[in-house]
Amino acid sequence: MTWTDGWWAYAFIAIAGWLATDLWRWLGVLAGKRLRDESEALNWVRAVATALVAAVIAKLILYPTGVLAQSPLWLRLGAVVVGAVAFFLARQRPAVGIAAAIFTLASGLWWLGF
Amino acid sequence: MDDLEDERSTLAWFLTGARGIFSLPAVILMLSFIGFCSLTAQAGIPPEQVVFMTGIVWALPAKVILVSSIMSGASLATAFLAVTLSSVRLMPMVAALVPELRGSRTPIWLLLFLSHFVAITAWVFAMERVPKVPREHRVAFFAGFGMTLVAANMVLVGVVYHLVAEFPPLVAGCLFFLTPVYFLASIWHSARHPVIYVALAVGLVAGPLFYWIAPEFDILLAGVGGGTLAWGAERLWRSRREARP
């Protein structure tokens, strides 16, 4: 049985996707009253959560799927660096950093003949 | 008469929240969803399942991990574990938002229901704008924004899925790249605690490092190991700074 087979695919998404995320949202509601914002436990949870997302980000940049898998690594890293520089120069405005990174990537891809 | 007035303004605040669909964070999120569509189309996941996933999971990083697990042929238990661990951050996010949202008469079931609409974009949007909304209308405001954003992205994903395959490679590549770049910028921008910056930096290095050492559990190890390291380092730095006169 593979994941694309009818109800199993939906059950897979519901258990591994919906239950796995809403569980934390519900616990968040219940903890909302009790969890102290300055507690060391919450600080650790924050650090682990952020590091997890950062690891996903790094993997998407270093090991992309699809079209970008054929693009050179230096171009992807270069686009992120240009985006980061623009982001900080523009007083940390996300839109500026994102636009600069995408523009750099697009120029590079075009120059390479994509 | 008072009740009628009250209801009317609740609807008005719901619609005010719904108008947030035209804000910059919402537009960036929708572009990221087009990128996500491209990822799922390349992974061969049927469009009905992508729409279902968008509505029921909602958080984009969780969905990216879910799709990666599906692509690598992971078992249900492995996929559940990877998504669960990557979604821990939803708990403190919701816990921080609830005291801001809650009015004096807000029932718990409503908060449990509305918590489903919390993900990075809705959270950043709500934490920024909710303090300017009168407390008794905050729930309506957030419900308007959250539900509109989810519904719009479900429709978007259903419509765009069939177009994504025909995108020129340059456009498909840029849309894919929007997701990591958007997450980087929005996490840095919305961080309110020093430990977030340390954890972001450590995680960026730990992710590829653990992918190289133990590719099956890389995200998990990078999160727990890298996060604990970042927490310890930031704590040490904090206590040293406090100890100094």
Automatic annotation (TrEMBL), chain A:
Species per Swiss-Prot/TrEMBL record: Sinorhizobium americanum
InterPro entries for the chain: Brnchd-chn_aa_trnsp_AzlD
Transmembrane residue ranges: 6-24, 44-61, 73-90, 95-113
Keywords in alphabetical order: Membrane, Transmembrane, Transmembrane helix
Name the record gives this protein: Branched-chain amino acid transport
One Pfam family it belongs to: AzlD
Signal peptide start and end residues: none
From TrEMBL, chain B:
Pfam families per the UniProt record, alphabetical: AzlC
Superkingdom of origin organism: Bacteria
Protein name: Uncharacterized protein
InterPro entries according to UniProt: Brnchd-chn_aa_trnsp_permease (IPR011606)
